[in-house]
Amino acid sequence: xxxxxxxxxxxxxxxxxxxxxxxxxxxxxxxxxxxxxxxxxxxxxxxxxxxxxxxxxxxxxxxxxxxxxxxxxxxxxxxxxxxxxxxxxxxxxxxxxxxxxxxxxxxxxxxxxxxxxxxxxxxxxxxxxxxxxxxxxxxxxxxxxxxxxxxxxxxxxxxxxxxxxxxxxxxxxxxxxxxxxxxxxxxxxxxxxxxxxxxxxxxxxxxxxxxxxxxxxxxxx
Length: 221
Ligand SMILES: O=C(O)COP(=O)(O)O
Ligand SMILES: [Mg+2]
Known about the structure:
- The protein contains eight helices and eight strands, in the order ββααααβαβαβαβαββ.
- It has helices spanning about 25-35, 45-50, 55-65, 75-90, 100-110, 125-130, 155-165, 180-190; strands at about 10-15, 20, 95, 115-120, 140-145, 170-175, 190-195, 210-215.
- The protein has a six-stranded parallel β-sheet, sandwiched between helices. Strands 2-3 form a two-stranded antiparallel ribbon.
- It binds 2-phosphoglycolic acid and magnesium ion (MG).
- Belongs to the HAD-like hydrolase superfamily. CbbY/CbbZ/Gph/YieH family.
């Protein structure tokens, strides 16, 4: 086992950019929502840098880029509804599990470590995506960006999963691809581990000073 796991009894994983490369489906839904409004597509490379603060912020960034100005609130609400509808129709069609994810989850569970999922994605999409990869049963608890009053980088969702599993934060590890994951983990009193292959607004996640970094989650086990 990776040394960062010493005395760790709960591992909370981020979803987008950590377990799954979901940008192809996110970008398709963003572009379809923009097309409904007569706006030009933004494409995967841009969307990649906009993921991580939930779907409303994603759509706000896309609209701002498409219109070259701050989005009007009513238009943003329409665009967001469009995004949710399009994404809901195909949340995993082109989404891929990153290498090492299945082995890591299986290996940790086999060693009696509790697993949780804490994403800023709307919670309605969590189960369909995990089910598409046969991973739904792996997690004791899954929280989305709309599950509680606040989302990452606020520590509340992490403190919630630790409390629900009755494990002190000092025995918990947050694994994620973005500064929001590392900041939330640190603020919650969790140990933090970063993966460099995901989405972090175009800058290296190591700038957030995680306690550790792995190139693949397979290194955990
Ligand atoms: O911003 C999102 O919708 C997804 O973010 P996540 O990286 O927390 O899963
Ligand atoms: Mg992420």
